[in-house]
């Protein structure tokens, strides 16, 4: 059945609840996907074999029920169950990359400043006229390569005139600076997402190993719990214990024995012990 309200279902707490919820739609025997020309044909064939009604369309629930076990089914569950829609922010790696960009841009910045000072001592013409060959630039733009460095990599630097060297460095700085600023702003937006609650993450981790059959190597990326962010939550700050888990009208007061529509910030309700553990985790702002 399609979720027409736009709200996101909550993943039940255990296998028995999950089985009770979707037993009406899924066959009793494990689903084994067959080769078909497209997703609709595959799902439609499986539903017919299970004695279910034919439909001209397929839904998010169908994708969950009839996705192959493993990564495909994991992705479909993250779409369908809001409290499992969490992903890593890769904060340390992002800052490592940002630092790498900063180092390279700083070197280029200093080299361009050095060239400007040298030109000033030699009369300063490149500083008060076009710092590049206008005709060559227009020709390259007409050829569709005006955005690329003027000289190919590996050329002898002695064979490259000073204006071309400057333009190559400016082009390199532009490319690196654009990538750096995009990553910097993306990191800012990611850090505004709340951390996933510990109970929801533990349930998701256990489901991946138990139901999807992932081995330890495949699950390794999920062990850095503080790096996971709740993509669905509408809150702009705070962490897992500040979402549904700490709300007095959270999901703990709802019946988890059915896949029912719920608020956007869905999570499996935390126990008091889990909330205390989450509160003890230092936030990035506290660390910085």
What does this structure look like?
By secondary structure, the protein is an all-alpha fold. The chain folds into 2 domains: 15-87 and 195-287, no CATH class; 91-191. 49% of the residues lie in helices and 2% in strands. It has 12 helices and 2 strands, in the order ααααβααααααβαα. It has helices at 15-22, 39-49, 60-66, 71-80, 91-121, 125-128, 134-143, 162-191, 198-210, 216-219, 272-280, 284-287, and strands at 86-88, 228-230. The protein has a two-stranded antiparallel sheet with strand order 1-2. The protein is elongated and about 85 Å long. Residues 13-24, 234-269 and 284-288 have low confidence and may be disordered.
Strand and helix layout:
Layout: H1 15-22, H2 39-49, H3 60-66, H4 71-80, E1 86-88, H5 91-121, H6 125-128, H7 134-143, H8 162-191, H9 198-210, H10 216-219, E2 228-230, H11 272-280, H12 284-287
Antiparallel strand pairs: 1-2
Helix pairs in contact: 3-4, 5-8
Bulk shape: elongated
Count of helices? 12
Total strand segments: 2
Order of helices and strands: HHHHEHHHHHHEHH
Radius of gyration: 28 Å
Measured between the Cα atoms of the first and last residue, the distance is 47 Å
- Average pLDDT works out at 75
The major beta sheet can be summarized as: 2 strands, antiparallel
Identify low-pLDDT runs: 13-24, 234-269, 284-288
- What is the SS-derived class? mainly alpha
Strand content: under 5%
Helix content: 40-55%
How many separate domains make up the residues? 2
> Strand sequence of the main sheet, in spatial order?
1-2
């Amino acid at each position: 059945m399609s979720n027409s309200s736009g709200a996101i279902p909550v993943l039940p707490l255990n296998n028995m609840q999950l089985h009770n919820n979707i037993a009406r739609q899924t066959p009793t025997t494990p689903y084994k996907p067959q080769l078909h020309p497209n997703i609709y044909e595959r799902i439609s064939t499986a539903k017919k074999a299970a004695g279910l009604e034919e439909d001209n369309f397929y839904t998010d629930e169908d994708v969950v029920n009839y996705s192959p076990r493993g990564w495909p089914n994991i992705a479909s569950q993250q779409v369908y169950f809001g409290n499992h829609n969490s992903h890593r922010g890769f904060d340390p790696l992002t800052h490592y990359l940002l630092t790498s960009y900063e180092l390279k841009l700083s070197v280029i910045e200093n080299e361009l400043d050095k060239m400007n000072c040298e030109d000033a001592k030699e009369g300063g013409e490149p500083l008060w006229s076009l710092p590049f060959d206008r005709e060559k630039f227009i020709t390259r733009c007409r050829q569709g390569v005006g955005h690329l460095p003027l000289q190919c990599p590996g050329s002898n630097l002695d064979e490259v005139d000073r204006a071309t060297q400057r333009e190559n460095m400016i082009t390199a700085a532009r490319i690196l600076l654009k990538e750096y600023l995009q990553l910097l702003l993306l990191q800012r937006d990611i850090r505004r997402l709340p951390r996933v609650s510990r109970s929801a993450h533990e349930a998701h981790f256990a489901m991946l190993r138990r139901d999807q059959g992932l081995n330890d190597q495949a699950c390794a990326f999920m062990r850095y719990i503080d790096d996971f962010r709740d993509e669905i939550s509408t809150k702009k700050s705070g962490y897992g214990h500040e979402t549904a888990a700490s709300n007095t009208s959270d999901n703990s007061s709802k019946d988890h024995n059915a896949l029912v529509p719920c608020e956007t910030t869905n999570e499996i309700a935390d126990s008091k012990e889990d909330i205390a553990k989450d509160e003890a985790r230092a936030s990035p702002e506290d660390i910085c």
